């Protein structure tokens, strides 16, 4: 093989990988939020989880991507290890679809698919149609890459050195196994490495070895590739929570166990012996014929279907073992705060947007709790709340920083997100919630001064402040619920309630000025009173701002400006 052949092989591999990635991305974008909806249906039913994992992986064309996504969901506490187990095993089945597609050998039609995909991409106006075009274009480029590689590799069929090497691999299956692990760990995709092996077959590289000999060569390599695909998830587990690490380890264990039992079965049935007649190989040959490309695809599918089915019912003891080896540590909420927005979620923009919104919900609930504690400290002299409000303020600030950084990363994923100004609105609502926390801290300082200076409110002043606090509390609760439920009616009500809060503020100011004039209240108490009223009014304003975000959000949904919204 000269230098030009290596360059052509490298180019063909690049086209193949790019085509597969483009096809997967196109399918993923075309599916949009449906992909998230599918995974959201995962329950404790292992068979349902298996089916959903299979479907998702067929869509995104990569078990590695599905597994990494599952690791991210477990890390965000959106999926338990038991639920993740079924999805991971389903991903192993779903990934075999790529090999079956390649086995169809549609290389002759690659230019047609490329032409159709490119034409639609150039003239389409709708995003959905563009995503479908990306899928078609990727499909064509994938087969064009296969065509280039198989053409380059054809001379290997007549190369005695290469033929002898294949025969040697058949005699030493462990070497083939290790080769499969290495290649897939480097490429980080079992679908891609299986495709590369099939390109060799299409190019006639296995012409010198047929039937049992060919299977003796390719089967260990395919099994090794099944272990090598775990490398992506093992890399993804760096820097994630212990629960997510457990999901990655589950993937590695199930793949390794599967390869061990299959290799043991093949050795016991004499699959690698000279003149061996293993029933496994007999079955593969009976359904595949003499085509090594189809043999590779069918064995890959058969192994993963059987392995996933067997280990699905053995998943509980495997999970117990993993939980014993990698136990989850209990954490203190404040000192061990970890935002659930891992970069793994960016693999799918719909998930990333959804989980960013979930974290904003959590942040808003913390702010709501802080408002209750701070108000009671000021109005009802519950000074024991002061320290907790300070802790909650630190937590709110951490959420603001973490979510804001993640939202910036989301905006870089999809131009339609930027054009919709979605991230601008989301940044604003994060800031609004943080400002609510700041006003809670302001009230805490007021409470401290009130306590230190011995300021006492009259019964009427306390009642009035309690009434205004209750209005502000209800409006903030309404805004948070509107945000969670994406409820336009509740969002509109926050504006109406804010107007009532403003009227209440004017009413309270006039009433307290009257008390000051009648000298029924001290000037010191008057200053504290007005400060509390001002802080409560500002919290009411920011609650209405949250409602405003919901109105913008619902408008984007109605226009379907982009597909990443949950």
Automatic annotation (TrEMBL):
Principal subcellular localization: membrane
InterPro entries, alphabetized: Na/Pi_transpt, NaPi_cotrn-rel/YqeW-like, PhoU-like_sf, PhoU_dom
Annotated TM spans: 109-125, 132-153, 165-187, 194-212, 218-240, 252-273
Subcellular location: Cell membrane
Any one Pfam family match given in the protein's UniProt record, by short name: PhoU
Domain annotation PhoU: ranges: 361-446, 465-547
Cellular component GO terms, alphabetical: plasma membrane
UniProt keyword Membrane present: yes
Any GO BP: sodium-dependent phosphate transport
GO molecular function: sodium:phosphate symporter activity
Keywords: Cell membrane, Membrane, Transmembrane, Transmembrane helix
Keyword tRNA processing in record: no
Membrane topology: Multi-pass membrane protein
Top-rank taxon: Bacteria
UniProt name for this protein: Na/Pi-cotransporter II-like protein
Lineage of the organism: Bacteria, Bacillati, Bacillota, Clostridia, Eubacteriales
């Amino acid at each position: 093989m000269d230098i030009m052949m290596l360059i052509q092989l490298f180019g063909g591999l690049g086209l193949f990988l790019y085509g597969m990635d483009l096809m997967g991305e196109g399918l993923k974008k075309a599916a949009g939020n449906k992909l998230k909806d599918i995974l959201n249906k995962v329950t404790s039913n292992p068979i349902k989880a298996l089916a959903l994992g299979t479907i998702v992986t067929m869509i995104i064309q990569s078990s590695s991507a599905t597994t990494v996504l599952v690791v991210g969901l477990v890390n965000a506490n959106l999926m338990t290890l038991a639920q993740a187990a079924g999805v991971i095993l389903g991903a192993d089945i779903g990934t075999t679809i790529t090999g079956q597609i390649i086995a169809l050998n549609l290389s002759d039609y690659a230019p047609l698919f490329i032409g159709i995909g490119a034409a639609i991409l150039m003239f389409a106006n709708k995003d959905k149609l563009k995503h479908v075009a990306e899928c078609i274009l990727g499909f064509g480029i994938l087969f064009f890459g296969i065509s280039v590689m198989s053409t380059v590799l054809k001379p290997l069929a007549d190369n005695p050195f290469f033929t002898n090497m294949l025969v040697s691999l058949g005699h030493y299956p462990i070497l083939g196994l290790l080769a499969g692990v290495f290649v897939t760990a480097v490429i980080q995709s079992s679908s891609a490495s299986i495709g590369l092996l099939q390109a060799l077959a299409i190019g006639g590289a296995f012409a010198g070895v047929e039937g049992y000999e060919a299977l003796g060569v390719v089967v260990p390599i395919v099994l090794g590739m099944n272990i090598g695909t775990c490398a992506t998830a093992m890399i993804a587990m760096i820097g994630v929570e212990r629960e997510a690490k457990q999901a990655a380890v589950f993937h590695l264990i199930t793949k390794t166990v599967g390869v061990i039992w299959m290799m043991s079965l093949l050795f016991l049935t004499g699959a690698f012996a000279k003149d061996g007649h293993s029933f496994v190989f007999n079955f593969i040959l009976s359904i595949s014929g003499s085509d090594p490309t189809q043999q590779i695809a069918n064995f890959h599918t058969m192994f993963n279907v059987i392995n996933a089915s067997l280990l699905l019912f053995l998943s509980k003891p495997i999970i117990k073992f993993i939980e014993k080896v990698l136990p989850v540590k209990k954490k203190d909420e404040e000192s061990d705060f970890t935002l659930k927005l891992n970069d793994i979620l960016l693999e799918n923009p719909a998930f990333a947007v959804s989980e960013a919104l979930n974290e904003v919900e959590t942040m808003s609930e913390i702010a709501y709790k802080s408002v209750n504690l701070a108000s009671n400290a000021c109005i009802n002299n519950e000074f024991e709340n002061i320290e907790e409000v300070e802790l909650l303020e630190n937590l709110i600030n951490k959420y603001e920083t973490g979510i804001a950084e993640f939202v910036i990363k989301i905006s870089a994923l999809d131009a339609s997100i930027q054009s919709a100004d979605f991230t601008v609105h989301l940044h604003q609502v994060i800031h609004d919630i943080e400002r609510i926390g700041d006003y809670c801290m302001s009230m805490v300082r007021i409470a401290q001064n009130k306590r230190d200076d011995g300021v006492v409110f009259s019964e009427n002043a306390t009642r009035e402040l309690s009434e205004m606090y209750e209005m502000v509390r209800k409006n903030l609760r309404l805004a948070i619920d509107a945000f969670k439920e994406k409820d336009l009616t509740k969002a509109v009500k926050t504006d109406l309630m804010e107007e009532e809060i403003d009227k209440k503020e004017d009413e309270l100011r006039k009433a307290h000025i009257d008390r000051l004039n009648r000298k029924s209240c001290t000037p010191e108490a008057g200053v504290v009173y007005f400060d509390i009223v001002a802080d409560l009014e500002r919290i009411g304003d920011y609650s209405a701002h949250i409602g405003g975000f919901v109105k913008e959000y619902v408008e984007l949904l109605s226009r379907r400006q982009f597909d990443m919204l949950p």
